[in-house]
């Protein structure tokens, strides 16, 4: 039995877009980047019980009790009014769940899935929980067949990855931009540690996928194609997934940005392939 807990934003019992096959995806709350293009911006912050979301709720699903914001799930209609009202980019619907709670969710889904993916926010901001969850799965006769993946922004330090390595089957990492200044403008953070994480994970054969998010007129992959491709080639045979930015669900100035279309993504795919990177995955659809 484990009492290790995490703040959980959402659980999707069956997903086919968060790694290979059908997977249970666990979204943890909180992120150490502040990406303007984030498609789940309410997972960035953590509720500080300010109460700004309570009055706007049209279904009285939120209240203040003993100074804390309380969510009444039975009243909630999932209208997301609270998400738009939160100055912290958080959600009052996040739940504190233990490893044992999650094992129950996973056990119910286990006959129908091939593995689990822990995402976010940024999953590794709650690293001890992930390590304990994956350890329990690997030690369970009924669940040890499930693969354990992490979807990450790569901000974790190498010492953290070393702790996760024994129980993790792979990590999918986003590289938001190549140039330091471009990355800083898009995420408010450097990408130096992210590149180091990508290199280390590739050396350990744990880099399941490198992801590039194409934002028209914002990302710098094509202008920096030569150093980018040199970097990717140095990683070995790693799938490179090209994702297309869309403005649905984003906050702030990114709502005015143009969504990526095939004409934005396919030239990058061709440039990568022309430089020896053959395992390039295009978006399944464009919104």
Automatic annotation (TrEMBL):
Belongs to the organic radical-activating enzymes family. Residues 46-66, 67-96 form the 4Fe-4S ferredoxin-type domain. Residues 17-278 form the Radical SAM core domain. PROSITE patterns: 4FE4S_FER_1 (PS00198), 4FE4S_FER_2 (PS51379), RADICAL_ACTIVATING (PS01087), RADICAL_SAM (PS51918). Its cofactor is [4Fe-4S] cluster. One of its GO terms (molecular function) is metal ion binding. The keyword Disulfide bond does not apply. Keywords: 4Fe-4S, Iron, Iron-sulfur, Metal-binding, Oxidoreductase, S-adenosyl-L-methionine. This is YjjW family glycine radical enzyme activase.
């Amino acid at each position: 039995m484990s009492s290790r807990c995490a703040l959980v934003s959402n659980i999707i019992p069956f997903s086919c877009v968060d790694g290979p096959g059908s997977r249970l995806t666990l979204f943890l709350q909180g992120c150490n980047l502040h990406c303007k293009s984030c498609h789940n911006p309410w997972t960035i912050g953590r509720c500080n019980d300010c109460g700004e979301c309570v009055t706007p709720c049209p279904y009285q699903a939120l209240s203040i009790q003993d100074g804390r914001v309380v969510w009444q799930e039975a009243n909630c209609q999932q209208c997301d009014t609270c998400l738009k009202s939160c100055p912290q980019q958080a959600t009052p619907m996040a739940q504190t769940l233990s490893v044992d709670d999650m094992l129950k969710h996973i056990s119910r889904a286990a006959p129908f899935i091939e593995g689990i993916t822990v995402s976010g926010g940024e999953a590794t901001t709650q690293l001890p929980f992930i390590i304990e969850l994956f350890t329990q799965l690997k030690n369970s006769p009924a669940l040890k067949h499930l693969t354990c993946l992490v979807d990450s922004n790569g901000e974790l330090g190498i010492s953290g990855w070393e702790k996760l390595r024994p129980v993790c089957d792979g990590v999918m990492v986003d590289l938001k931009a190549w140039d330091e200044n471009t990355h800083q403008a898009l995420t408010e953070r450097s990408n130096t540690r992210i590149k180091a994480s990508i290199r280390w994970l590739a050396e350990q054969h744990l880099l399941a996928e490198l992801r590039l998010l194409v934002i028209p007129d914002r990302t710098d992959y094509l202008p920096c194609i030569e150093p980018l491709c040199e970097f990717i080639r140095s990683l070995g045979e790693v799938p490179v997934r090209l994702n297309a930015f869309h403005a649905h669900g984003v906050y702030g100035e990114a709502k005015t940005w143009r969504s990526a279309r095939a004409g934005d993504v396919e030239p990058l795919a061709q440039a990568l392939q022309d430089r020896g990177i053959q395992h390039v995955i295009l978006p399944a659809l464009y919104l």
